[in-house]
Predict the 3D structure of the following.
Amino acid sequence: MSKASERAYSQIRAMILSGALPAGAQLGEEALAERCGVSRTPIRDALRRLEGELLVKRSGTQRTFVADWSLDDVGDAFELRAMLEGHAARRAAERMTDPQIKRLREANRVIGAAVRASPPDVEGFLEGNREFHAIILQAAASPRLAALLGTLIEQPVIWRTAHHYGREALLRSFGEHDELLAAFARRDGPWAEAVMAAHIRRAYHAYADAHTGLAVIDRQLAHG
Amino acid sequence: MSKASERAYSQIRAMILSGALPAGAQLGEEALAERCGVSRTPIRDALRRLEGELLVKRSGTQRTFVADWSLDDVGDAFELRAMLEGHAARRAAERMTDPQIKRLREANRVIGAAVRASPPDVEGFLEGNREFHAIILQAAASPRLAALLGTLIEQPVIWRTAHHYGREALLRSFGEHDELLAAFARRDGPWAEAVMAAHIRRAYHAYADAHTGLAVIDRQLAHG
DNA sequence: CTGCTCTACTTTGTATACAATACACCCTGC
DNA sequence: GCAGGGTGTATTGTATACAAAGTAGAGCAG
C-alpha cells in the first residue's frame, strides 16, 4: 500500500469529499482505475478502506456507490459525534500542553478572521475548524477514539453544512470555540466536554433547520 | 465479495478471535491463502476489512500482524464501549418491540443456565452475552452506531476477559442483565443507559484486576 | 400497449504472473 | 571480533486475464 494504492485512496476520498463524486454516484472500478492511472487492484484496496469508513456503500453485490446519507443518518452521526468528541474534549483538557493550546488559539484566530470577512470566508472557516478539532483529537491521545471519530468527522455532509450558515451562526460557533479555549486553558475537563457536546449539537440544529428550509424551497421549485 | 472473500474474512476473523492466531502473530498472505483454499486476492480483501476493524495491524509496510493491545488500549476500548453501548441501550429502550424483549429474556436465560452450571460454562456465558448485546444493538436501529461498536466489541481481548471471572463476577454480570431487562420492559431509556454503562465499566474493572493479578504471577514465574 | 423473457453487456470476483521492496544473513575488510 | 555493505530471499504491491453474476435493454407475445 505504499504508492499507488495510497494515492488512489486519497484521490478517491478527495473526490468524494469535494463533491466531485456526488452522493449516490456509481463508482466503477474500471473508470476509477483509468482516472487514477493505475490498475483495478489498488482501486479495490482503496474502496475496501473507504467502505470501512462508510464513505462508499456496496449495493449488495455488483455495484458500488458514494454513500448517501438520509437526514436520520446525519442526525445519528452528529449525536455520536457530540458524545465522542465531548469525551475527546474532556481527555484533551486533562492532557493538553501549552504549545497545543497555542496552536488552538492560532486556529481560532484564523476562524475569527474568516468569520469577520465580507462576505464570510466559509472555506477558511472550515479549514480552521478542521484544524481546531484535529488538535483536540490529537491531544486526547486515544488512537481508538481517533479512529472512531475519523469515520464520523470526515464526511462531506458534516462539513458542507457550514455553507448554509448565516453570519450569526458562524459567529456563535466562533464564540463557542472561545469558551472551549477557556476550559482547556484551566484544564477543566468536564466543562470542556459539556461545551463541546453542546457545540456539536448546535451545529446539527443549524444544519437541520437549513436542510428543512432548503427542502421546502426545493419542493416549491419542483411544483412551481 | 460474494463467496471466497467473505469466507476468508470469516475464517481469519474466527482464527483471531479464537486465539488460533495469537496477538502479534505474523499474517502471511500466501500462507492464509493456502489455509483458506483461495488465492491471495480475496485474502487481501479480507485483511483490508480486518485492518479497518483494527483486528490486524500493518507494520508500516511489508508485514501484517494480529493486533496487539496494551492495557491502556483495552481501557480506552472499554470506556468508549461504555459510552456508546450506553447510548445504544437508551435508544433500544425507546424502540424495543415485545418480541425483541422476549428474545432478550431467552438470551439471558441461557446466560443464567451457563453461570449456574458446575463448573460455570464460560463459552455458553459468552455466547449468550454476544446474543444479548447484539439484540440491543439491533434494537437501537442506528447503522452508524452499530458500525462503530462493531469495531470495539468484536475484539478477542474484550471477550476472553470472562475466562478470568470467578462465579461471583459471572453472577453479578447476570444480575445486571436482569436490571437491564427491567429497564427495557418499562421503556426507561435513561436508566437503561446508566445501567449499561456501569455494567461495561464493571466488566473492565474485573478484567483489569484479573490482568494485574495475572501479570504479577507471570512476573513471579519469570523470576523464579 | 404492456408485460415478460431472453440475451448481451457491464461490473465485480478470483486467479496468476511479475515487480518492487525490505529484511536478514553472510561475507569481507579493518 | 566487529562493523559495514551487499546479496538473497521472503513478502507484499501491481497488473492483467478470465470467470461469474446481475442488470438493462430489446424483442416478442398476449
In short: The beta strands of chain B are 56-58, 64-66. The mean pLDDT of chain B is 86. The CA atoms of residues 77 and 152 of chain B lie 6 Å apart. Residues 1-5, 38-42, 45, 60-63 of chain B lie near DNA strand C (CB under 10 Å from a C1').
